[in-house]
Amino acid sequence: SIVKNKYKIEPLAHLTCINSNKNQVNSILDNLKQSGIENILALRGDIPLGYKGSNEFDHASDLIKHIKQRGDFNIVGACYPEGHLDSKNLEEDIINLKKKQKAGATHLISQLFFDNEYFYSFLEEKEKYNIDIPVQAGIMPVINIKQINRIVSLSGAKLPKKFIRIMNKYEFNPEALRDAGIAYATEQIVDLISNGVDGIHLYTMNNSYVAKRISTSIFSILDTINNCERLIN
After folding, report:
1. Going by fewer Cβ within 10 Å, which terminus of the chain is more open, N or C?
2. What's this model's pTM, rounded to 2 decimal places?
3. Nearest alpha carbon to residue 126 among 64, 65, 198, 187
């Protein structure tokens, strides 16, 4: 509400459902609507230990369908360029993604990845299933060693050799590792923008320094590219 009404920035509320019932979700949706929040990222959430299923919201598509019935929200879904950890393969995951689109998702935000080729391959695969809503690429700058194992265990993202070399080189130099992580993420984003990506979702883990460094670098690079194109034309 503060982000929306005080700072006039359009927010995206994250809503998980795996351990919630419909009454709890309805209460949250009512509060969001009263605050003028229009955008919701609908997620299943991590399954708690000992969870046996609620029969209300077992999947993100269940939550998306329910939100669609409750009000005029813009609903965003998650997608996984390398496949969700709980899916048998990428094909099964994309079939589940199709359910999110049918349920009412208007666009998607991807799980983080470190190799853009996985993202491009995913875009090609989803088109085979007529999934035509926009996809924002999720990019996370790795700025310290502690993040790596946690990221891989939670997301299943594969680490390219180039990325591993960077991490090994600067393992004992925190400042250099931070700068290298920012540079790697910036390089990913420039390549994605050059290939016409629908948008970038930056996972900064509440680190405003990283967000500012990357956004400043990206805008500077894009200005340089645009100036060069004008000179050529």
Report:
1. C
2. 0.90
3. 198
